[in-house]
Amino acid sequence: MTNSPAKPAEYLKRAREIEATWGASAATLGVISTFTAELLRPFVIVESEQSGCPVRPWFAPFGQLEQLVLDDDSTLWRQNPDVLWIALRLDDVERHLAHESAAIGPAATQERLDAIRARVVALAQAARMKHRAAILVSNFAAPPATAGNLFDASDPDGLVHLVADCNRQLARDLAQTPGAHVFDYAGAIARWGAQRWSDPKLWYMARSACSSENMPPLARQLARAVAGLLRPPAKCLVLDLDNTLWGGVLGDDGPQGIKLGDDYPGNVFKDFQAALLGLRERGFLLAVTSKNDEQTVLDALDSHPEMLLKRKHFAAIRANWNAKTDNLREIATALNIGLDALVFIDDNPVERATIRAELPMVHVVELPADPLGYLAALADVALFDRPRLLDEDRHRAEMYQGEALRKQVEGQATTVEEFLQGLEMTAQVGTADGNTLERIHQLIHKTNQFNLTTTRHGLDGLHQFMDSPRAAVAWLRLADRYGDSGLVCVGILRALDDDTWEIDTLLMSCRVMGRQVEHAFLSYLGELARNEGARRLRGLFRPTAKNSPVKDFYNVHGFVDLGGQQERQYEIELTEGALPWPAVIHRVEQPNKENARV
């Protein structure tokens, strides 16, 4: 839901007002296209401001894609964009393909489509080598002329299906290019209507691909895609229960009286639960805060025959009569995440207003009064956009369930050593390759507490470290008897001289703090440096608002404090046994040691 202006002139006025307040805070979006995209400018500015991720767009003259990407000193690269949008349309480069495809046949048609796909993939790859910008590449919409052939979709080798196959291969190609992603231009046209997507007069007079009425939704989708690339997604969705997950009030109506099932209105809530369960499968945690009796809630979750969301699906449940602000704070603490990582959904507008006022860092979803609009409201939450789904994302909920079991065992253990031994931990260590790079990049950009320098290296920088004989990108995966915690540690080493290597980056997921995992990983980093001939290892600590828990990390591990103001330096002699591997963690190497240094 947005409060967008109603008319283009209002967008233009609002965009000027917004730009005057930005300074240097807005991200830069570079746009290279085969059509005139400049008319999108005020719409992108306004919609990006409303998304909470301000974007200042820069538009190249249309048709100059290769010239701008391949020239190191082009006006595009002088903009230093944070995101690059490569917008190439079939209509522009193969304007008459829809009329010609039947005559030339499917093989020739596919050959021409493959050439276009290869062109945009090559552009994305070249841009990746030139610049650190994240890359969006528009997929292809079938030319409007195909709509004139009512039965084109009946032909398995017709243009409609050949274009769809081309888009599928485009997604596969871009998945192999770090930092490159599909922008669903074809999906935008399908969503808002192909028949009126373009204005013929605007096209023939100004080469504008989009009608005025469709510029706001296109700009909204583009701004949302940019935000999804530049800011971290939410981590946990905290839900009310009564009239949110089901119809009615559990305490008044009883478990059998709530509205949940396959008939209206219960089917509305059941579909909403299915969508929430889908978010959980994509790596977002679910939690509950409800003014209810806890045992009544647990019984309903466990026993209601139509309940899709069971007790096991929630990382935290707070069913009590406390203020929901207090419950949200407790949930964030229990899950070891920030309040700014929470999304709150409640049908009660008073509760929503209270959370907005007292916890402004929490994202509050504005649910409509009619539950029929719940799914649309959920789909509107940009903080659930995740550019690429990793294995760690798919298993995140299970990881948190394992963490809850560990905390129970920790509470029962008489000593820390007994607890750690009982975990039966196994750590796998290795150096970065194509299988681990995306997760390493993800951790670097979201880990704040256990992060010694908080240096946010991009994919280009990581590739440079990986390829350098004088550097290494290392990782550690952790598993124990309660489950696999995934890749939880990242370290970047670089040589200062023949005798001294420096830890440029050292970070660890807060979920595994206090288990000697950091000792194991530091031992591995020291081993990597020693194997490269280093006699000394230097560590850095840059204080931030969130990393105070690790300010004494190097002191604890025997490093000598070399001093410093904004950045403190520490050093240790890499003598035998200087950084021992902890006995409570069993060590294994990465299976594919092609890139390993050990």
Q: Name the strands of the widest sheet in spatial order.
A: 16-17-15-14-13-12-11-18
**Number of E strands:** 18
Largest sheet: 8 strands, mixed
**Would you tell me the structural class of the helices and strands?**
alpha/beta
Q: What coarse outline follows from CA principal-axis ratios?
A: globular
- Unreliably modeled segments: 594-598
Approximately how much helix is present in the residues?
40-55%
The whole-angstrom Rg is: 27 Å
Query: How many helices?
Result: 23
Question: How much β-strand is present in the residues?
Answer: 15-25%
Query: Whole-Å distance between the termini?
Result: 53 Å
Q: If you average the pLDDT, what whole number results?
A: 91
Features:
single chain, 598 residues, alpha/beta, eight-stranded mixed β-sheet, five-stranded parallel β-sheet, 23 helices, 18 strands, 41% helix, 18% strand, disordered C terminus
